[in-house]
Amino acid sequence: MNQEKVNTAASFLDLLAVYHRHEVIGIENLPTKGRCLIASNHSLATYDIGLLSNYILKNTGRLPRALMDRWFFKFDFIRQVMDELGAVEGNQESAKKLLENEELLTVAPGGMRESIRSMNERYQILWDQRIGFVRLATETQTPIVLAACPKADDIFDVLPTNKLSLWVYKKFKLPLAPFRGLGPTPIPRPVKLVHFLSEPLIPPKLSGDKKEQSRQISKFHKKVIKRMHSLIGEAIAYRS
Questions:
Q1: Which CATH number fits the domain that encloses residue 112?
Q2: What is the pTM of this model?
């Protein structure tokens, strides 16, 4: 991690925070020390997750480490930038090492597929088949704090995904989708962004029986998704 690069990124995010009048509700729900997995919804803009991490750093002194899609680490230049900013490849091994070091981790379970949802699917999450982050939290006994910022979906209008976009995603895992921002341009709309943080969700202690472990993880996964849906509803209804 390169502190100078982190500071540069933080300065840029400060400008975006002003542009979007960024606000965080529930920062007190994050632990002041010890491991925690922060699970967020994923917009096409993506930088809203960076806004949250920057806010956490400035208000708690803790820098969340981002678990990024493996695609970003296939290219040396991008890998170097990610490393300098403290991001890590999103796999179980890397995540476990950081949690064992009592770090804060951010993850967007819906991944790139969630980011290219069309405007007709805005404010939704695609976590039903994404159980890895819950398994990670359970196996490492790490609390999950959910972060909902549904209005990030209003930064851009993502047009209905066509066959080419779906093919590119399935083949190369690239978030290629037609979109527009301010007017007909790709400039981000200055929508107000508010992150809602949930109370810590504590994973169950795993049984020694493999079948029972699967049942426990599945049950906790459903609990996490249900809470995220309700948190998104709270964030949509919020009026500052």
A1: 3.40.1130
A2: 0.90
